[in-house]
Amino acid sequence: MALERSSRSTGDRDRGGGFSGTLLASHLLRRSARPLELLLIDRNGGFGKGLAYGTGDPGHLLNVSAGAMSAWPSDPSHLLRWLELNRESLSDLLPADLDASSFIPRQVYGLYLSSILQDAIAHASPEIRFRSLTAEVVDLEPGAQAGAPYRLSLRDGEQLQVDRVVLAWGNSAIPPEAPSDPLQRHGWLAGATADLDPDATVALLGTGLTMVDMVVSLLGQGHRGPVIALSRRGHAPNGHRRVRPIAPWLDPAEAPGTVLGLWRLIRRRVAQAEREGDDWRAVIDALRPVSQRLWAQLGERERRRFLRHAAVVWDVHRHRIAEPLQRQLQALLEAGQLRLWAARLERVEPQAGRLALQLRRRGHTTSETVQVDRLIRCTGIPLDYARAQEPLLRQLRERGLLRSDGLGLGVRSAANGALLAAPVHGSPVHGSPIHCTPADGSGQPLPVLYTIGSPRKGDLWETIAVPELRHQAQALAETLLRSLPRFLLPVEPVLPQVGAAESGAGSAVSAPAVAPPPPAFLWRQLFDPDTSTFTYLLADPASGEAALVDPVLEQLERDLQLLQELGLQLSFCLETHLHADHITAAGELRRRTGCRLIVPAAPGITNADQLLVGGERLRLQAIELEVIATPGHSPEHLSYLVQGSHLLTGDALLIRGCGRTDIQNGDPGQLYDSLQRLLALPEATLVFPAHDYLGRTSSSIGEEKRHNPKLAGRSREQFIALMTSQRLAPPRRIDQALPANLHLGDWLPGDHHDADLQAHLAGQAHDAREALAKADANRDIYNAYIGMYI
Asked: Is the model's pTM score more than 0.70?
């Protein structure tokens, strides 16, 4: 993917239109509010599908249930809603009892990804130009000087000037070669099972996930003959099973630094789980949040030892297949049609129109010969970037723009996905600002060249599944948009109260001898008793310009009346995050007042006026708001520091507590890091959360550092264990709130009328009055609205 002159995001090369490239492009299309030219390149077309989801065989199922396969980190039910919307048109491909536990065809998931991209294109800012291109990139050359655009060359001779490049290759950077012998095929290429007699004997080299695909395809075409699957160890993938989850049990800081030590620890924990009535799957799944850290702590020697001795066993336990597929394989094994052998293939020779396979079974000292009609290689694709002769890879290596991880798994990259320059012996990389590399050979991150997903496996290990990839795509989109040159930013609208630019370097203004006192501002804390939600009103008294933070739909008339009584003009609404417990009033406030909606850049937001990712500064005339990224409760969560003194913490930091992390793709490790960022503020900073359930209204950073039981004295690992062990009921309105809030509170997206809203509000008003009558303990909070001039 490439970001071109007013900026383009360069997609993958061969299968740049796969999951990683498609989702990254969708994030960029949705998040950017600046002029951007985005180009998605895929050698074979089929954008949104890639190798994994480009299959046309409905028997090839996802290896994870539909409830966990949403493309958006903050919207876990997105795929399920899409499936329900398209259930009728996809009825031939979907199970009749479709629910979150269903394993759907990968073909359907490819359609889902394509629709995500098309939706992002349709809702992109008019300043963005998008183009998908079926082509092969053969060269990528840096500009003549630092900061100059790269030149991207296509096989047909076309050249493009690009400012940012993302290599979203997936597993297709080095495409497999088709065997010259027509009796041999490659499972990753089309036609692997074509033209076969139904009674033919088929050998599958490899017993992993590709083997399962080939068995399914053979059965789907009515194959009756024997199928022999062989690998050195003869391990087949395990199947999924519904199990009771367990809390993370391994602290990386206390983990052994050797593969043998880790292996023994895992085996002991599995034995313990079995004694306690738990399943080994829960033990493996509980390692997932820390697997990248465990891998990072292993030295290269230990990583090689893992790949040599343990990787195969780990893969068959970690990457499991759908329950229906496992039952199908088991039935074939019991019937004798499928045979699973632990054997080494030593030689393949044509013999009288068939193939003679010389192989040695594990534990045997002599070889045997087996006659088959076809050999299908299911061993995956080699990813040795150090030796691959693909034109683009070769050029990148020669220019020092790409270096292998040394393990044959991928390339070296920085934490944000930037490629690390290869050692160039003190000479500058041509046209690049990289002049040398550190003595340890680690390299420096290239400022314009990134990768995502599978190529990072050597650095991260756990980087090929949807949960990891969707977070990488979101984070990389933010990195790319932040890195774009400042001259590409559009001129701000003539609304000086929001996003006013800092003074230019050319202005010569003398600093006063004494700094003026901070300007006064109007502050109100408002309360919704039904959801215990605080809404905040702040305003510049001199101009009357106001902002509302986290407004609640049921309190729309209250907030409008207060604005009128105080003589304020609403300039913008802010949200701290995508709320799961109430529907925002932002959309209606914009319709009634003309205000702007400025919200976190959550995937799926369709009609915001401005998206925030953290680090921005907003202005309300003389009042400044600093935007602080505080992910963890949800990935897009933000906090706002008003005038350096009042901290709006949303659901991140609560009074003597913190937000939950078990919904909306929350992450306790991320939340802990975010809370440490907030606790580093001056202790006098006042804390105003989005909720309180015990009648409290505010706190301070100093108080929370000393008295917050979720944080005081807890390490990161202890905090993660605490948050993971919680068992909480979901918010009662989550199914209505999340979809509505993606449309910023428009109750009927695309078909909204006053009558609909009034009917909804009338129904909610009775409930709110009833709840208020019962909330005597909170009445003083609700009525006081704590106003002050500061």
From this structure: no
